[in-house]
Amino acid sequence: MTTYDDIFKCFVVNAGIDTSRLPSEDYKIHDMIINGINHYNSKIGSSDYLGELAGNNLTEAINLKLDGTRLLLLAYCIKYVYLENQLVEFEELWTPFQKDMGFKNYREQVRGRESTLERTEQKILEYLSKIEDRSLM
Fold first, then answer.
1. For 90-112, what is each residue's pLDDT tens digit?
2. pTM (2 decimals)?
3. Sign, CA torsion 66/52/42/34
Protein backbone atom coordinates (compact mmCIF):
# COMPACT_ATOMS: atom_id res chain seq x y z
CA MET A 1 0.00 0.00 0.00
CA THR A 2 1.10 3.54 -0.71
CA THR A 3 0.48 5.86 2.22
CA TYR A 4 -0.85 9.37 2.14
CA ASP A 5 2.50 10.47 3.60
CA ASP A 6 4.29 8.93 0.59
CA ILE A 7 1.92 10.67 -1.80
CA PHE A 8 2.06 14.08 -0.12
CA LYS A 9 5.85 13.93 0.21
CA CYS A 10 6.18 13.11 -3.50
CA PHE A 11 3.83 15.99 -4.31
CA VAL A 12 5.77 18.49 -2.17
CA VAL A 13 9.17 17.37 -3.47
CA ASN A 14 8.10 17.50 -7.13
CA ALA A 15 5.60 20.36 -7.12
CA GLY A 16 8.09 23.20 -7.11
CA ILE A 17 5.60 25.49 -5.40
CA ASP A 18 5.56 27.65 -2.30
CA THR A 19 4.84 25.14 0.45
CA SER A 20 3.82 27.83 2.93
CA ARG A 21 0.40 27.97 1.26
CA LEU A 22 -0.20 24.23 1.49
CA PRO A 23 -2.60 22.97 4.11
CA SER A 24 -1.21 21.57 7.34
CA GLU A 25 -4.44 20.04 8.66
CA ASP A 26 -4.80 16.33 7.95
CA TYR A 27 -8.36 16.58 6.65
CA LYS A 28 -7.36 19.21 4.08
CA ILE A 29 -4.38 17.11 2.98
CA HIS A 30 -6.71 14.11 2.70
CA ASP A 31 -9.07 16.19 0.54
CA MET A 32 -6.18 17.15 -1.77
CA ILE A 33 -5.10 13.53 -2.09
CA ILE A 34 -8.63 12.19 -2.70
CA ASN A 35 -9.21 14.89 -5.31
CA GLY A 36 -5.89 13.98 -6.94
CA ILE A 37 -6.91 10.31 -6.94
CA ASN A 38 -10.14 11.22 -8.72
CA HIS A 39 -8.20 13.13 -11.38
CA TYR A 40 -5.67 10.29 -11.66
CA ASN A 41 -8.45 7.76 -12.23
CA SER A 42 -10.08 10.07 -14.76
CA LYS A 43 -6.81 10.51 -16.66
CA ILE A 44 -5.67 6.90 -16.64
CA GLY A 45 -9.07 5.39 -17.34
CA SER A 46 -9.04 1.69 -18.07
CA SER A 47 -5.57 1.74 -19.62
CA ASP A 48 -3.84 0.66 -16.40
CA TYR A 49 -3.92 -3.04 -15.60
CA LEU A 50 -3.69 -2.24 -11.87
CA GLY A 51 -7.15 -0.68 -11.91
CA GLU A 52 -8.46 2.44 -10.22
CA LEU A 53 -6.99 3.94 -7.11
CA ALA A 54 -9.08 4.30 -3.97
CA GLY A 55 -8.08 6.27 -0.90
CA ASN A 56 -8.90 5.40 2.68
CA ASN A 57 -8.78 8.34 5.08
CA LEU A 58 -8.90 6.05 8.13
CA THR A 59 -5.78 4.09 7.21
CA GLU A 60 -4.27 7.05 5.33
CA ALA A 61 -3.34 4.77 2.46
CA ILE A 62 -4.54 3.86 -1.00
CA ASN A 63 -5.52 0.40 -2.16
CA LEU A 64 -2.40 -0.17 -4.30
CA LYS A 65 1.36 0.06 -4.01
CA LEU A 66 2.32 2.59 -6.67
CA ASP A 67 5.56 2.36 -8.60
CA GLY A 68 7.58 5.53 -9.18
CA THR A 69 5.87 6.53 -12.41
CA ARG A 70 2.35 6.10 -11.05
CA LEU A 71 3.29 7.95 -7.85
CA LEU A 72 4.67 10.83 -9.90
CA LEU A 73 1.54 10.84 -12.06
CA LEU A 74 -0.62 11.12 -8.94
CA ALA A 75 1.63 13.86 -7.53
CA TYR A 76 1.34 15.83 -10.78
CA CYS A 77 -2.45 15.39 -10.79
CA ILE A 78 -2.52 16.90 -7.30
CA LYS A 79 -0.20 19.68 -8.49
CA TYR A 80 -2.39 20.42 -11.49
CA VAL A 81 -5.51 20.80 -9.36
CA TYR A 82 -3.64 22.93 -6.85
CA LEU A 83 -2.26 25.25 -9.55
CA GLU A 84 -5.60 25.47 -11.31
CA ASN A 85 -7.26 26.50 -8.05
CA GLN A 86 -4.53 29.08 -7.47
CA LEU A 87 -5.11 30.53 -10.95
CA VAL A 88 -8.88 30.74 -10.44
CA GLU A 89 -8.37 32.38 -7.05
CA PHE A 90 -5.91 34.89 -8.55
CA GLU A 91 -8.25 35.77 -11.41
CA GLU A 92 -11.29 36.12 -9.18
CA LEU A 93 -9.39 38.28 -6.73
CA TRP A 94 -7.60 40.60 -9.13
CA THR A 95 -9.74 40.82 -12.29
CA PRO A 96 -12.27 43.26 -10.83
CA PHE A 97 -9.55 45.54 -9.45
CA GLN A 98 -6.78 45.34 -12.01
CA LYS A 99 -7.62 48.65 -13.72
CA ASP A 100 -8.58 50.51 -10.55
CA MET A 101 -5.37 49.55 -8.77
CA GLY A 102 -3.10 49.96 -11.77
CA PHE A 103 -2.08 46.32 -11.79
CA LYS A 104 0.08 46.61 -14.90
CA ASN A 105 1.38 43.09 -15.25
CA TYR A 106 -1.88 41.25 -14.54
CA ARG A 107 -2.05 39.63 -17.99
CA GLU A 108 1.57 38.49 -17.77
CA GLN A 109 0.91 36.96 -14.35
CA VAL A 110 -2.10 35.08 -15.70
CA ARG A 111 -0.15 33.89 -18.76
CA GLY A 112 2.70 32.73 -16.54
CA ARG A 113 0.33 30.72 -14.38
CA GLU A 114 -1.36 29.26 -17.46
CA SER A 115 2.04 28.29 -18.83
CA THR A 116 2.85 26.48 -15.59
CA LEU A 117 -0.46 24.61 -15.89
CA GLU A 118 0.40 23.63 -19.47
CA ARG A 119 3.84 22.32 -18.43
CA THR A 120 2.21 20.33 -15.64
CA GLU A 121 -0.30 18.88 -18.10
CA GLN A 122 2.58 17.89 -20.38
CA LYS A 123 4.27 16.04 -17.49
CA ILE A 124 0.99 14.23 -16.80
CA LEU A 125 0.77 13.18 -20.45
CA GLU A 126 4.40 12.05 -20.35
CA TYR A 127 3.77 9.81 -17.33
CA LEU A 128 0.55 8.47 -18.86
CA SER A 129 2.46 7.56 -22.01
CA LYS A 130 5.10 5.70 -19.98
CA ILE A 131 2.44 3.74 -18.13
CA GLU A 132 0.60 2.88 -21.34
CA ASP A 133 3.84 1.83 -23.06
CA ARG A 134 4.67 -0.53 -20.18
CA SER A 135 1.20 -2.07 -20.16
CA LEU A 136 1.54 -2.94 -23.86
CA MET A 137 4.68 -4.98 -23.20
1. 888 777 666 666 666 878 888 99
2. 0.89
3. negative
